[in-house]
## 1
Amino acid sequence: MENATLTIQLEFNGSKGEELAKMPQNSLEVQVITILLALVICGVGIAGNIMVVLVVLRTKHMMTPTNCYLVSLAFADLIVLLAAGLPNISEVVASWVYGYAGCLCITYLQYLGINVSSCSITAFTVERYIAICHSIKAQFICTVSRAKKIIACVWIFTSLYCIMWFFLVDTNETVYADGVVVRCGYRVSRNLYMPIYFLDFTLFYVIPLVVATVLYGLIARILFMSPLPTNPNDRVGTDSIHQGRSNSTVKVSCKSNKGAMTSRKQVTKMLAVVVVLFALLWMPYRTLVVVNSLMDPPYLNTWFLLFCRMCIYMNSAINPIIYNLMSQKFRAAFKKLCKCKQQHAEKVTKYNVPVYYSVMKDSSHESPEHDDTEQEDMNSYPVTSKKVNFTEKCGETGAMFSIA
């Protein structure tokens, strides 16, 4: 990644011309702290991101446009942790042990994970803006199928963009009195790589943060500083749900409408926290790259380099923790996955899901993919914790339906 790889490359180039009697080695203190932190952060991050992918892909009501982008982000974070965090553990105590092919592939995967995570954050920021500030258009724009197409385009674009790293890195050997040190480093002079680093800095850090700042400012103005605009055509969490015949209308209570508004705020806050942490945790490394491009020799303090690397690993590991703390829906899904309560889930499904999906399917005459957009606003509520009553006023019996 731009973290451990760049650090090694800078250190290698800084010492390339020097004649050293003995092979340079990190102190025991640096080795122990690096290994412990990397193991803990990467272990938590890998487990957490795998859980995010599983709960979204295995739970039908979790498959929303926003959660699709979170799955893409989780996959990208997994690549960062596996391709950058784990190799750093072996490098801190030895030289490069993955060979020439490993140097090319690991460097490629590091940049791929970084860039995809940045693009995924930008994508769900734009999706949140459309869903809240243009709620009518969101019924047709913010759908699961469209989200999947956007994610596919993001991965294809970044995969092609990062191919250049196959031609920019190589393994380098330095001979010392007591052995040979192999490093995965630059193929040519470091100065020639500065335009590429500044391009990455602009495309995958500055632009996403500028876009996020502007859009979340507009979202805050609509969502927190003024009443949430209601759409008469909305069917879940708004004024009405059309069920069965055109003459039959099921109205949701005002309490449910207020709950949908609260849920939107919670989801938006959670995603805003993800963006803020992305900005803060990537800032040390991005700043270091800019400063070192202007300094000769570059700043290579061992502890600051370790801090930069751990911040990047932390950024890839912390998102599942944020989802668990700020989303009741994710928290319930994580608990269910950990406890493996599959039988209990099946019993709940038998009694409750048919009513829910009968309403959703019958109402699909207006917009086939509208359900995918609206379900995201229910993400902050566990499925079994709250009941919403629907009253069929057109019927003579005044039948009452309940969704647990």
## 2
Amino acid sequence: MQQPAMEDPAAEVAIVMAHLRALEGQLEEEYRARRALAARLAPLEHERDALAARLGAAEAALAAMEHSRIWRATAPVRWLLGKLRRAR
């Protein structure tokens, strides 16, 4: 439903300008909120990346250990210990 045209173009322009100023204020508020969130997010992203690097290093160390000769050589002992623990 369309509103009837205003009789005073200056009044219509003033209403539109007031609306635009209100929208500009809302946009500025949203921009500040987004910047604040980005500032809070940056350290969390850094921490995530550091934890991912530590996880990768731990996985590589575990893989190296599991493929070592001593790990393969002690497999029967670990198997036997597992059987003994389950038997209790």
